[in-house]
Amino acid sequence: MRIRLARSPRIGPVTFHEALQHFGSAQRAAADLPVVPDSQIAREEASLARAGGQFVVLGDPAYPPALAALPDAPPLLSAVGNLALLGRPTVAVVGARDASLAGCRLAGDLSAALGGAGFAIASGLARGIDTAAHRAALTSGTVAVLAGGVDQIYPLQNSRLYAEIARNGLLLSETPWGTPPVARCFPRRNRIVSGLSAGVVVIEAAARSGSLITAHRAAEQGREVFVAPGSPADPRYEGSNTLIRDGAILLRDIKDILSVLGGSHCPAQPLGKPSRKPAGSVAAKVLAALGSVPTAVDELVRRCQVSAAVLAEVLLALELEGRLERHRGNRVSLI
User: Fold this and answer.
1) DSSP sequence for 67-130
2) Does residue 327 share a domain with residue 208?
3) Do 289 and 244 share a structural domain?
């Protein structure tokens, strides 16, 4: 019933969560709200199955904990590929579509090195930086989040890369099968790219770009933002340099990422064997750092010295146990 509710017209992620909270269950919500028929869901599920994919519903064991902790977490994802990647610590690498050769080389080098340190690489399958990041992480693990349906290849020049990710990585989308990648879908896609990740790496972001949207959403979500600096005379770096001025972490090499997120001694796990930190010790740190006064999630990351993805998993567990309350501004407190 959650799938029917999630696919219903005028029920977006926030409305979905509010409906569950108000009615108590998807079954009760569906009784009072107009939801799509079973036949529509069956057709989409059959198309997804023929492509070797499946639905991942919020609350499923396979649903990524870091994403689940967001107030606007997508209630339903279509996935094609290796679902085990959703359990891996992840870093997003994003940047200009019209990237320079140097920018693409940096994206590839960082993605390969992060893959060797145990991280999956998330991006949006766009030209330029996204493409370079995905290609470099094909063997270690990469997640492509699509703006349209999971069957919609955009841009078409990445058709071969799309197929390689379907075989060796993971394709994700929150939009229904067959939905074209229209403009309004890209910002929603970007929040998933950052939401999956412990940190976001920005390479060559112009003043008005999707990469800046991803960086801003990452900051709102309590993720770390790492930015490669560039010449003030190059318009491809105008947004990047502004992010650094406004407090993002200046990125020189992979050590700047690993010093914040960890993983420098964490070898890449074979795909299908997620790497996780012991939950008990992390939970104890989080409980010791929390109190009745709301605390920012990014402050907890610093205090507890854990990645944002691991912290999100612990916070979700505490929330499900009824011990945690969420507040505006990505802050939490103990009940």
Assistant:
1) HHTSTT--SEEEEEE-GGGGGS-EEEEEE-TT--HHHHHHHHHHHHHHHHTT-EEEE---TTHH
2) no
3) no
Burial 181-209 (b: 16+ CB within 10 A, else e): beeebbebbbbbbbbbbbbbbbbbbbeeb
CA pseudo-torsion sign 277, 121, 105, 230: negative
In this structure, the answer to whether residues 231 and 286 fall within a common structural domain is no
Residue 320 gets which letter from DSSP? H
- Identify the band that residue 273 occupies on the pLDDT scale cut at 50, 70 and 90: very low
Q: How far is Cα 26 from Cα 20, in angstroms, rounded to an integer?
A: 6
pLDDT tens for residues 217-233? Answer: 999 999 999 999 999 98
CA distance 70 to 36: 25
How far apart, in Å, do the first and last CA atoms of the chain sit? 30
Q: If you search the block for the tokens 């972490």, which residue do you land on?
A: 249
Q: Tell me which residue of 328, 229, 300 sits closest to 318, measured CA to CA.
A: 300
**239 lies in the same domain as 307:** no
* 82-110 residue pLDDT tens: 999 999 999 999 999 999 999 999 999 99
Average pLDDT for 43-52: 95
Residue recorded with tokens 């970007």? 190
Residue 287's contacts (CB-CB under 8 Å, 6 or more residues apart) are: 318, 334
Please indicate, yes or no, whether residues 148 and 291 belong to a single structural domain of this protein: no
Same domain, 239 and 321: no
Tokens of 119: 């991280």
Mean pLDDT of the chain: 88
Mean predicted confidence (pLDDT) in 155-178: 97
Distances (CA, A) of 328 to 139, 221, 271, 294, 310: 39, 11, 36, 9, 21
